Prior knowledge:
There is one protein chain. The chain is an alpha+beta fold. The chain has one domain (6-307). Helices cover 30% and strands 22% of the residues. It has helices spanning 34-37, 45-65, 122-127, 144-154, 157-162, 182-194, 203-213, 226-231, 245-249, 258-268; strands at residues 6-7, 12-13, 69-74, 88-96, 99-109, 114-121, 135-141, 219-222, 252-255, 273-279, 283-288, 304-307. Strands 1, 2, 3, 4, 5, 6, 7, 10, 11 and 12 form a 10-stranded mixed β-sheet that branches. Strand 5 (99-109) and strand 6 (114-121) form a beta hairpin. Helix 4 (144-154) crosses helix 6 (182-194) and helix 6 packs across helix 7. The longest helix is centred in the N-terminal third of the chain and has 21 residues, at 45-65. 42% of the residues are buried.
Amino acid sequence: MLAGCASSPPGKATPGKAPPAERAWTLSPVSLSARFCDPPKVQDATQQDRLLRFAAVVRTRLEDSGAEAALISRTGIDLDRFDVRFSHSGLAVRDGGGVPWSVRQLYYACDERRPQLYEQGIGGFLMNTDEPRIGHVSVVLLPDEPAMAVRRAALDDRLALRLLASSYSANAYPFSVRYQNCNQWVVELLATAWGELSDGADLRARAQAWLADADYRPSEVVVDSHWVKFAAPFMPLVHLDDHPPDARYGMAFQISMPEAIEDFVRDRLPQARRVEFCHDGSRVVIRSGWRPIPDGCLPEAGDEVVRLDGHAR
């Protein structure tokens, strides 16, 4: 039941302080296991090289798309037990952060024990994965006007920081301002951009109200054991006190996950285009459309296959 946002990624933290009406850079100390928060990377030089080649394929498709902004999601932590492929989303913008394409996203900064916004290139975005031998990336290319609105909002430091909560929860309830996870920040920024919401101390609450009115439906993540819920108070970065009582005592949580955000964008913007990429260490499979690539990164009719040495086949 976790969004994969806990890390300390390489990249640039968003400069400046949050508006004084919010405590966006103050987080109450929590007891964190370094192993939980920063799992050891297992990437050797060969795996890193392959991930960078994979990133180059994704970046080239973004560059050739003509889009100004896109929703980008990747596999990160293993959530197979919850039937979840993508764990972490960000907003990819053209000519942002001093590079042709950069991703603005929320991470929980483990060392500083607070959520922060980061800008990374596509390569850095893809490096934070538990499994470098195989991985998936989904890109939803936004139509012109909605894309420009998202790009303006994402690159507006004051607005982006206004939407940053002071407290992080991996399973944050999407219609409460108590906590936030990485994917919730993304969907609240989409709401702010497309709802043309003005800045203000209550911006997060207004963004969530706009999402509810727009029929945003978070993912329902089914918990397979009551023990998980009973243990939640002792698990770092997991909270129950923001969820409605029926969720707390039931067996499912509503959480903002990449799949739910993609569904929302697809319903709202029929012109949006989706491209999924996966790699298995030796090749990249590219599929245009909303049908997911099968597990195992197996190509089917109509898919494009590119060897990680750069040659199509």
